[in-house]
Structure formats: C-alpha cells, structure tokens
Structure prediction request, 177 residues.
Amino acid sequence: MNFESKITIIDFWFVGCAPCVSEMRQFDSLLKGREKEISVISISIDDAKYWKTPNSPFLTKTVDNWKFYTLDTKVLPDKNKYLRDLFNIKYFPSYIVVDNKGKIVEVPGSAVDYIKENYCYKNWILYFWSERLFTKDYILFQVMFIPYTILFWLTILIGLIIKKRKRKEKKYLAPNT
Prediction:
C-alpha cells in the first residue's frame, strides 16, 4: 500500500467522543499546507448519517489530506470487537501512524500532539516555550522553584553581609599583648 504523504495518521473515533471531536477540530489548521508530509484518515464507528450533518461543521473537508470513512454495519455488526481484535483499539480516540509504505511507525496518545511535536515545532525551544512551559505541571514546578530561588539568593546575600562585617570587626580589633 502506497500513501501520497510521508506519514498517514489513522484516526478511530465516534460522534459522542468529546476528546475525538476536540482533536478533530484542530486537524484542519494543522494539516493545511502539509499535504506531502501528513495525511489523516478518520474512521468512524458511527454510520455516516450521524456525523455528516450541518451540526458537524469541523468535518467539512477543506484540506485534501484528510479523508473520512465509516465502518460498515452490515459487514461488521460488532465494530468495537473488530477494532479491538484487529488493531488492539481499546479506547477512543485511538491513532496509528503509518509511513508511506504502510509500516506502523507509532501509536500516539494524541494525533494533535504528534503533529505539533514532529511537524509544527521543528525547533524544540519554540515547542517547549509554546506548549510545555504553560501546562499545569510546569507552572506548578515554576511556582515551587521561585521560593527556592529567592531563598538561595537571600542566603548568599546574608552570607556576604556577615562576611563583610567580620572583616570590619577584624580590622578594628586591637591585637592582644
């Protein structure tokens, strides 16, 4: 199987899955202009009549490298079992990244994070600054680090003041005779 782009992300989702929809809303902007690098195939376990509605404006295909499919109910009565048995899909959304020869490259937890890390932020400093610096965990780390930094510099400052006073005291003390 040959794909047109370097990698293809196979996205398994369903209409009632909030994390699925949240990620899919970002695909359009992330995929635009990256046709040779990335393509996405979104496979729904719902019938197309449930997601091909005006209520799903994020699914209006505006980029050529994002295609939509649905698993056929007539052929696969138990879609979840089929996905679990064939692809080890146990939760939604689930993603499989394959290269242009069809070889599985990675199974990321988030397609959006995978695209951002590997294709949007080639400069790791920009990625760290824009994505990781302001997450809840990093803010907590920074907030915890500030008091220790202040304590460090206060300790240094107090040590220098004490050292300076001791020098002055030695200077003014008369030698014992």
